[in-house]
Amino acid sequence: MPKFNIKHITKYTYESLVRDSVNHIILYPKEHEHQQVMKHDLQISGNPKVDTFVDYYGNQIGFFTYSERHRQLEIYSELTVVTSARELPAETMFSEFQWEELQALRYHVPYIDYLKWEAFDGLRELKEVITASKESEAAPYHVALNFCTYVYKHFKYIQGVTTAQTQLNEIWQLKAGVCQDFAHILCQMLRMANIPAKYVSGYICPNKNGMRGEGATHAWVEAYIPSFGWLGLDPTNNCIANETYVILAYGRSFNDCSPVKGVYKGPSDHKLTVQVIVSYDDGTVEQHEPVEEMPVTEPEVPVVFKGNSYRRNLQLMQQIQQQQ
User: Fold this and answer.
1) Which Pfam families match (predicted)?
2) Which of 34, 241, 152, 94 is nearest to 102 (CA)?
3) Which residue, 20, 75, 126, 205, shows the most beta carbons closer than 10 Å to its own?
4) Chain centroid, CA 27 distance in Å
5) The domain 3-83+256-293: what is its CATH number?
6) What is the pLDDT of residues 30-64, one digit of tens each?
7) Neighbours of 324 (CB within 10 A)
8) Rounded (10°) CA dihedral 32, 197, 172, 308
9) Which residues on neighbouring strands pair with residue 13, listed in sequence order?
10) CB distance 259 to 62 below 8 Å
């Protein structure tokens, strides 16, 4: 049963003084039979009062307002959790019955929300991929694993080419992104195959294993497998998410699970950096440099995000191909 101490530091830096920063945070770790929360401390600039409630998806949500003028806002979350491994689904010869059970879940709460998939320009192409990846007579468990492997192999892990607002159309066109983009694509594939899928936000604690997604919050997927329950799948690393993953939130997409988002009064230019430091029982500490992320907190006038070189080059290549 591994034990992790996790420090999550979120820092906003503004170009000049701002005020009335109203924020929505999901930084409270889940408590369940495979994840026991030993301690959780939360410190916020200005020591505002934090009101909490539990949302529809079972996430604990915090709200606070920092009214005083400020040029920085820091949210420091430190938690200690103990996790345990969950046994994997057993092999079964009755895949037909499992698919029938999944078909019946289409009209049952809470599975309905986790079965809704989005229409986008690449839908026909993705349907062909799903048909090819979904072997005949294969059980839902194996189909889910195949989909996870497909995303891992066909999408490049490149930081900075997408933002929290990037839609499926762009992700599918770029065939690149980070963990949240990989999770969004896998959720779409599973839902289109009639397998309920949750978007999951949290931390990855690989202890020197060098997995992608370290140093910040991580995103993966949970797929519902009949006779087993919810199975964690990480398409960014092509593995099953088990005892080295710490869960913060569940939802349909990133929008339901964003660790910090909000609004403020002041100039539009600001910077967001996030740092996650993980300590282990053996004294090992994994500490990365703070990662600069695209802010989800907005000023009164929304920020217009500019393109990037990777996307411009991709568009240029597509234009050349169309002209040939």
Assistant:
1) Bact_transglu_N, Transglut_core
2) 94
3) 205
4) 13
5) 2.60.40.2250
6) 999 999 999 999 999 999 999 999 999 999 999 99
7) 4
8) -20
9) 72, 271
10) no
Cα–Cα distances in angstroms (integers) from residue 317 to residues 260, 306, 321, in the given order: 36, 19, 6
DSSP alpha helices (H): ranges in the chain? 95-104, 123-133, 140-154, 168-174, 179-192, 254-257, 309-323
The token pair at 214 is 């370290």
117 φ, ψ (degrees, to nearest 5):
-110, 160
Contacts of 55 (CB under 8 A, 6+ apart): 61, 256
The helix/strand/coil state of 34 is coil
Sequence ranges of the domains in the chain = 3-83+256-293, 95-247
147 and 155 Cβ atoms separated by less than 8 Å:
no
pLDDT of 306-318, one tens digit each? Answer: 445 445 444 544 5
Which CATH code fits 95-247?
A: 3.10.620.30
- Residue 178 and residue 317: Cα distance in Å, rounded? 22
